[in-house]
Amino acid sequence: MTNHPEFLEHPGNAALLAGHQGEYLLPSATAVQFISAEGTAITTDKYKECYVFPAPEILLEGYGELVLGRRINEQASALVRQGRMAVYPSSYGQEACQVAAFMTLHRSDWLFATYRDTVAVMGRGVKPMEAFESLRGDWHSGFDPHQYNAALPTTPLATQLLHAVGVAHAAKLRGEDTVVLALCGDGATSEGDFHEALNFAAVFHIPVVFLVQNNQYAISVPLIHQSVAPSLAHKAIGYGMPGERVDGNDLAALLAVLGSAVERARNGGGPALVEAHTYRMESHTNADDATRYRSAEEVAQWVPKDPLVRLKKYLVHAGVLGSADAERFAVAAEALAKTLRDGLNERTEADPQDMFRFVYSEPTPQLREQSRMLAAELAAAGVAQTSVDGDLP
Amino acid sequence: MTAAPVLNPLELTGIQELTFAKALTLALHDAMAADPAVVVFGEDVGTLGGVFRVTEGLTATFGSERCFDTPLAESGIVGMATGMAINGIRPVVEMQFDAFAYPAFEQIVSHVAKMGNRTRGHVRLPLVIRIPYGGGIGGVEHHCDSSEGYYAHTPGLTVLTPSNVQDAYVLLSDAIASPDPVVFMEPKKLYFSKATVDLDALRARYASSGERGGARTVPSSIGQAAIVREGSDATLIAYGPSVAPALAAAATAAEEGRSLQVVDVRSLVPFDDETISAAVRSTGRVVVIAEASGFASMASEIAARVQERCFHSLAAPVLRVTGFDVPYPAPKLEKYYLPGVDRILDAVDRLQWGQS
Ligand SMILES: Cc1ncc(C[n+]2csc(CCOP(=O)(O)OP(=O)(O)O)c2C)c(N)n1
Ligand SMILES: [Mg+2]
């Protein structure tokens, strides 16, 4: 049971805690699932007291997003194979987590994502080529985080979780009702920053939700070498925040569990940790060869659990998804794929003077000198320059 | 699943063509075979054999107690290695990339570097921290940092960086044999470069010294720079990834009638003032080349030491060709950032040739 005074004061929480001995902070006995891998609704009402099954129109919209997400992953991987991009960490198979991450947020909320979360970042409204600029190698980023309330995807593992805590803390100080959703992988939970972020979030009782996409691997290292806790969600109780585990390939369950954590945080209920069970269907990146450390049989076991197939079966059976909608989604996905192809096939040249422009708000005398040196070098070599004579701001 | 190959060192003898990465594997292998206290760990070093395959086959050969994956936490890796070194183990740990060693910075700077001094020499830490570093591989951000300066600046750390296949074996072997902690910087653009080496000769360096760290047949390479190309007009001082462009520049200059000597520093700490000063005095002109940003860098240290010791032999100011003072750029811009042959030769041209 969390001891945080603000938590106990909150009327909703007091009610939740009544009669509990701290179990409230522990995850469910098994991962929350609303739609089985076969596409049928789970009929037990085990979770009904805590979570609301999403409305059909929400699930239909979510299915459309899954189709887009899948197409982004397929197209990006194809473009890597064709040499149009150096690297793409794919979220193939994890699209339900990606879609739930943005569908549960308001426009004014914030998302802190990792390198694997391009689909979630695009769900914040980031335009395709803005999202792919860093992967194309032009610059470290392609968008302004403030425009979308989406931080740049972060590579040094777990470091972004503390930034998420900071944005949420600032929102609290400024009296905004912003919720921050912070993503990380199973491997990242071993880093010290993961611990620090969860503890800060709990102690300051701030509106941040941590979503761990447990895709079973950190590159080649399986979960069992990261943690022998009963589950990653169990870690939450150690910080005094609730933890929950959810079938990460079940969009309905994700929307319900994540949605409830986000709204609870928005209403002053404090942080939460959600662990989504999913699977990295592809290699870590194209530079990796997963056959070196896991069997084809293991991967094959996850194919029938696919998040798209399952939701499609459910929606078709429930009469929610008809051929017109399916066609609409497919057309949108193809259009997006074409945008990616066109964008990445375009040969872009980055401006070398950009190296000096943004290091400080005002370039130092040393940077101005180095900028002029490079401009002179390029001029001597007869290279056409976008910026002439190191014209820094 | 393909089983990782078991290394058979007996198959690899005599004259062999090796990659830089494989030379490192062999150094690890030979050290582990010679001394059961040598233990390798890090992220993805076990089953996968490391993202650059440097530890490939070690788990299969020596078992998962001698080469193993840790939970994903660099501070944990270096902190645990410190404790193990206190208690009789000689850990060789891998940081996956330069920038991913930063979570371990606290352990490296506050403990690894200071332990010997704090304990008046009662506790020495024979541990090696291997760090792939540098750019030139089209890598995305945080995968191309030249972080050697942070470590070289920290008293108590030995810092080595090989620039060729043979030195990959020699320097890593000497690092593992050292009683002091070594930060071992591996230029990642060299991992798949190849050279033919005489493995028997390399191994003979250590064969008769029994337990590594004991009596040696040859002096350690720690603290030893190498002249990698003779020349009489000017000296290029380089290390790790910048040795290749220095040699290429010297080859081009030779065609233009200028004889450039090239020095490979190899051991950033301790620094071989003797060899390097003698080399500089022999030519009187110097360009220092490094990939790292130049400001307050290893290149600055080299330039300062050369100037202090060789001032009266110098015909021109010591010049530096380094990376710009900017975060390592995105892949499409790295060609503008990296010190290349043209930039090196421009610097050579500015060594006041008319005035001597
Ligand atoms: C601090 C740090 N250490 C190491 C790495 C190298 N690295 C990149 S991704 C990765 C595995 C991460 O696994 P996980 O957190 O499970 O995320 P996933 O890739 O499975 O989505 C590693 C070790 C890094 N990016 N940052
Ligand atoms: Mg993972």
UniProtKB/TrEMBL annotation, chain A:
Record bears the keyword Oxidoreductase: yes
Any one GO molecular-function label of the UniProt entry: magnesium ion binding
Gene source species: Arthrobacter psychrochitiniphilus
Span of domain Dehydrogenase E1 component: 68-328
Catalytic activity: N(6)-[(R)-lipoyl]-L-lysyl-[protein] + 3-methyl-2-oxobutanoate + H(+) = N(6)-[(R)-S(8)-2-methylpropanoyldihydrolipoyl]-L-lysyl-[protein] + CO2
Highest taxon in the source lineage: Bacteria
Swiss-Prot/TrEMBL cofactor(s): thiamine diphosphate
Enzyme Commission number(s) from the entry: 1.2.4.4
Functional description taken from the UniProt entry: The branched-chain alpha-keto dehydrogenase complex catalyzes the overall conversion of alpha-keto acids to acyl-CoA and CO(2). It contains multiple copies of three enzymatic components: branched-chain alpha-keto acid decarboxylase (E1), lipoamide acyltransferase (E2) and lipoamide dehydrogenase (E3).
Protein name: 2-oxoisovalerate dehydrogenase subunit alpha
A single BP term in Gene Ontology: branched-chain amino acid catabolic process
Protein family (similarity comment): Belongs to the BCKDHA family.
One Pfam family cited in the UniProt record for this chain: E1_dh
This protein's UniProt keywords: Oxidoreductase, Pyruvate, Thiamine pyrophosphate
UniProtKB/TrEMBL annotation, chain B:
Record GO terms (molecular function): magnesium ion binding; oxidoreductase activity
Keywords assigned: Oxidoreductase, Thiamine pyrophosphate
Keyword Oxidoreductase carried by entry: yes
InterPro entries: THDP-binding, Transketo_C/PFOR_II, Transketolase-like_Pyr-bd, Transketolase_C
Cofactor(s) for this UniProt protein: thiamine diphosphate
Keyword Repeat attached: no
Domain of life: Bacteria
Occurrences of domain Transketolase-like pyrimidine-binding (ranges): 18-193
Protein name: Alpha-ketoacid dehydrogenase subunit beta
